[in-house]
Design a protein that fits this description.
- The chain has 221 residues and is mainly α.
- The chain has two domains: 149 residues; 31 residues.
- Helices cover 80% and strands 2% of the residues.
- It has seven helices and two strands; from the N terminus they run αββαααααα.
Length: 221
């Protein structure tokens, strides 16, 4: 009996951790970069447009005055993008709350005394799945909003701005990496120098001990 209770507790905790972790990931995740740091021209991933909160963050940066001016956005376009972004943020917050509530429901069903209601639990799992689907759909909305609002020429400027920003970040990262490599090389050189110095000290001590032994040895009779 105690074993069944313990197993159920472990399962419930696993469900809660999974749902809570997923909700946090929906909020904080960063899109993974392909090897080599390259991204395609149209901000695409396999299966469609680039997804994830990164698109929303780029939209926020695009609405900054200098970037908006560089792209050539007019006041009406800026307002459309700002209003759309605020609406998406509101929807995202609501879906995160629903996801947390769905996780709580699953946990409560599994913690209930007596027989586990598998049918109700499966309904709760399906509800969580529907919320995740809605969140996935929401994550592609920022890029769709941009494509619907900007002209073809402005979209071309967006891509150019992204390439320039990406190249600048890459150069900065490479410079930082080179600096770190240089520091590691210096540390390694100092370590080897210290090892050599200690070795020389040990050799000198052994030579001194050998000289003392020779001095103390009696003369042959």
């Amino acid at each position: 009996m105690m074993s069944r209770v313990c197993m159920r507790m472990v399962t419930v905790l696993s469900v809660v951790a999974l749902v809570a972790g997923s909700a946090l990931a929906e909020r904080k995740e960063r899109p993974a970069r392909p090897k080599g740091g390259e991204r395609s021209e149209d901000m695409k991933r396999p299966g469609g447009e680039r997804q994830g909160p990164g698109a929303g963050r780029f939209l926020e940066r695009m609405l900054e005055s200098d970037v908006a001016k560089e792209i050539g956005l007019d006041e009406a376009q800026v307002k459309t993008l700002q209003d759309g972004l605020e609406n998406l943020k509101t929807q995202e917050e609501g879906l995160r709350e629903k996801l947390a509530a769905a996780g709580k429901t699953q946990a409560e069903l599994m913690m209930a005394e007596g027989e586990l209601d598998e049918a109700e639990l499966m309904k709760a799992v399906e509800a969580t799945g529907r919320i995740r689907t809605e969140m996935a759909k929401l994550r592609v909305q920022p890029i769709l909003l941009v494509k619907k609002t900007l002209t073809a020429e402005q979209l071309k400027k967006v891509h150019e701005h992204m390439r320039t920003s990406r190249d600048a970040r890459r150069e900065k990262m490479e410079g930082r990496r080179e600096k770190m490599d240089g520091m590691r090389e210096k540390r390694e050189a100092r370590r080897k120098e210290q090892q050599e110095h200690r070795k020389q000290e040990r050799d000198q001590e052994e030579d001194d001990e050998g000289d003392d032994s020779d001095a103390e040895a009696p003369d042959d009779l």
